[in-house]
Each structure stands twice: as structure tokens, then as C-alpha cells.
Amino acid sequence: MNFCSSCGESVIIKIPEGDNRERHVCEHCLTIHYQNPRVIAGVLPVYGDQILLCRRAIEPRHGFWTLPAGFLENGESSLQGALRECEEEANAQVIEPELYALFDIPQINQVYVFYRAQMANATFNPTFESSEVALFDEADIPWGELAFPVVELALHHFLNDRQRGDFIVRHEEIRRPWKSPRPTS
Length: 185
Prior knowledge:
Oligomer: single chain
Strand content: 25-35%
CATH architecture of the largest domain: Alpha-Beta Complex
Largest sheet: 8 strands, mixed
């Protein structure tokens, strides 16, 4: 950030009085510009034994598969955002969503919130954000083509939980370097 979004003057980086972190500060209008983590909300949609994935039609990671998820908008809850993203990316409706996982990724200033939910029906289709949308059996998940490590981790936990027959709400911190939980063969 180079300029104040309140008055347009240049900003400096300093620790404001009473704070303990460097912030962008406008010395002209005294506005402190806080930069906070971005929240990504998404759904792990299931139809029968299959999982719905979307092939990204946008950057980043264009052409790779992901769960329907995206940045939370102001004025919406994480659940509202997750449901909106599922509709925006897959034109899919889900029922009975339940909080499933919270992943902190501090090195990229992101927090992921995933809900798991049943699809209301097998109706879905590509959108502006997804070039392809498909249901996958566990054996057919394109592990080497997943867009983000957090999606791989969410899927891994889900499949393990489903096999055990016990779903638990998860909270994890993801650090680099990323080590896949899936064995490569």
C-alpha cells in the first residue's frame, strides 16, 4: 500500500501508539490501515458416495480441480459464503451443511472454513468460474491435479472420517513446506 484510501496521501509503515505491529499509517489524516487475513469459505459437497469437484476456469491455478470455495464477502456469514460459492462455482444446491474444517494458513494470510453437505440432487454444471464440474468416486479423485494443498487435506480427512464412520470438526494450521497426507504411488 502506497497511498491512503481515505485521503490519498502517502502512507508510511510504523507501529502506531498502543499497537505492537507495523501498520500502514497516513500521517496526514491519521488513518491506520489494518491488513487482516482473508477468509475463504467452501463446501465439500457429496452425492451418495461421490464428491463434487470443480475444474477452475480462473486464476490462480486455472485448469486444476478444487472444492467450490472462495473469499467471504462483507455482510455474510461463513455458511452463507460457502453456499454462495457452491452455487457460483458449480450451480449446485446442498442440504444440511455442517461445519467440517477450519484451516489456518498464516504464511499466506488465509483462513479456510469448509462445510460438508449432501447435494440436494445430482444437478450441477460449469459456470464462469469452473470449466468443468464432476462427481468423483474416491478412486477417481484427480489427486495430482488438485489446485490447492488445503483442498487435498480436506478431502483426505473427509475420506478417512467417512471410512471410520465418524466425522469430527477439524482445526489445523498448515505450514510450508507442504507434505501431502496421501501416499504417492
